[in-house]
């Protein structure tokens, strides 16, 4: 009996040694596999998905090109996008846009970084030195019935291949997450995830943005003039904000129009981000009436319908104190 127990112990120990050896071997092989090559855009070309109109936050925009497995970073001089760098990345194990929880696909859309996780907050072997959470599912995703959560931009150590495929996250090396960290402002910096990035001449991008700027001015003017019919025409029938649908929003705004003798609305320094028929517009909003005066950041989530008309499906506003407003004005 004693001999049998010793044999069982020896076999268990041997199996453990074999498993450990295989784990080390797999990691060694992964470490030897070269990372995908980052695809650098042609000189003088810019993505056709965003445009700055003025000097403001965010100082950078990140774009993940799933087809090229490349993460690019863009800054700006006035309203012109400037290429900063391109880095190799990993994405979800399965191809295509994310639709349901657990499908191991990387979602495609316009997202904003929410929180930073590092140190004891995360497992180094799985997430590297640092991770940034994203606001997936965003309002567009929820409207489309997409599910899931926990989509991050995070790092991995050298022992992990950048070709293994993630559970849906965008993944880079530790040294790259270190480079990206000072460029990311939480709740402010966008990560645009696309199946494929389309590059155009800057002049074409500026030209195509004029229709959006004109539409935004129409919305502002309708609000300021208290023309409720014209104002509500800018809103989608499925609009929701502040726990109100479109009808309650109309009643709410009509009440304010009657309450105040005048309304002034200023819009400046808009950032326009687009993906297919989805747009996010973020800008400084200056509001004044005979009962209220404030300055804040307004974000509009807009969809373009089949007749190419823009309609707001939700909007968010947050107050900006003096210090935060100053930082946004100088683009820190």
> Which fold name is given in CATH as the topology of the largest domain?
L,D-transpeptidase catalytic domain-like
Globally, the shape reads: globular
Number of strands: 15
The portion of residues forming beta strands comes to 25-35%
Element-by-element helix/strand order: HEEEEEEHEHEEHEEHHHEEEEH
Q: Mean pLDDT score, rounded? A: 88
How would you write the strand order of the largest sheet? 5-4-3-10-6-7-8-9
CATH architecture of the largest domain: Beta Barrel
Question: Tags for this entry?
Answer:
eight-stranded mixed sheet, L,D-transpeptidase catalytic domain-like, 332 residues, five-stranded antiparallel sheet, alpha+beta, Nuclear Transport Factor 2, Chain: A
Task: Present the secondary structure layout.
Layout: H1 2-32, E1 46-47, E2 50-52, E3 61-65, E4 70-77, E5 80-88, E6 109-118, H2 124-127, E7 130-134, H3 139-143, E8 152-156, E9 170-173, H4 174-180, E10 190-194, E11 199-200, H5 202-224, H6 228-232, H7 246-259, E12 263-275, E13 278-289, E14 293-304, E15 310-319, H8 322-330
Parallel strand pairs: 3-10, 8-9
Antiparallel strand pairs: 1-11, 2-12, 3-4, 4-5, 6-7, 6-10, 7-8, 12-13, 13-14, 14-15
What does it look like?
The chain has 332 residues and is of the alpha+beta class. The chain folds into three domains: 32 residues; 155 residues, Beta Barrel (L,D-transpeptidase catalytic domain-like), CATH 2.40.440; 129 residues, Nuclear Transport Factor 2, Chain: A (Roll). The strands form three sheets. It has an eight-stranded mixed beta sheet. Strands 2-12-13-14-15 form a five-stranded antiparallel beta sheet, covered by helices on one side. The longest helix is centred in the first third of the chain and has 31 residues. It is globular. The chain starts with a helix and ends with a helix.
């Amino acid at each position: 009996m004693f001999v049998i127990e010793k044999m069982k112990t020896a076999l268990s120990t041997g199996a453990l040694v074999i498993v450990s050896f295989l784990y080390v071997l797999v990691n060694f092989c992964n470490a030897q596999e070269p990372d995908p090559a980052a695809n650098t855009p042609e000189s003088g070309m810019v993505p056709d998905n965003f445009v700055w109109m003025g000097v403001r936050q965010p100082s950078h925009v990140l774009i993940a090109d799933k087809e090229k497995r490349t993460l690019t970073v863009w800054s700006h001089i006035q309203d012109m996008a400037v290429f900063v760098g391109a880095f190799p990345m990993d994405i979800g194990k399965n191809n295509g846009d994310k639709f349901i929880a657990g499908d191991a696909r990387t979602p495609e859309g316009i997202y904003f970084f929410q929180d930073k996780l590092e140190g004891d907050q995360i497992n180094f072997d799985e997430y590297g030195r640092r991770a940034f959470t994203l606001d997936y599912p965003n309002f567009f995703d929820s409207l489309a019935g997409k599910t899931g959560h926990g989509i991050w931009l995070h790092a991995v150590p050298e022992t992990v291949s950048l070709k293994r495929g993630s559970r849906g996250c965008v993944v880079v090396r530790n040294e790259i997450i270190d480079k990206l960290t000072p460029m990311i402002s939480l709740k402010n910096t966008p990560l645009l995830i696309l199946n494929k990035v389309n590059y155009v001449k800057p002049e074409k991008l500026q030209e195509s943005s004029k229709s959006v700027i004109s539409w935004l001015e129409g919305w502002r003017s309708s609000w300021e003039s208290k023309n409720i019919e014209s104002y509500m025409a800018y809103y989608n029938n499925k609009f929701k904000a502040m726990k109100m649908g479109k009808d309650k929003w109309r009643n709410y705004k009509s009440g304010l129009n009657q309450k105040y003798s005048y309304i002034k609305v200023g819009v400046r320094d808009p950032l326009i981000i687009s993906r297919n028929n989805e747009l996010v517009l973020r800008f400084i909003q200056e509001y004044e009436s005979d009962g209220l005066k404030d300055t804040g950041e307004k974000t509009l989530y807009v969809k373009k319908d089949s007749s190419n008309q823009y309609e707001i499906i939700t909007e968010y506003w947050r107050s900006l104190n003096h210090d935060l407003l100053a930082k946004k004005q100088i683009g820190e």
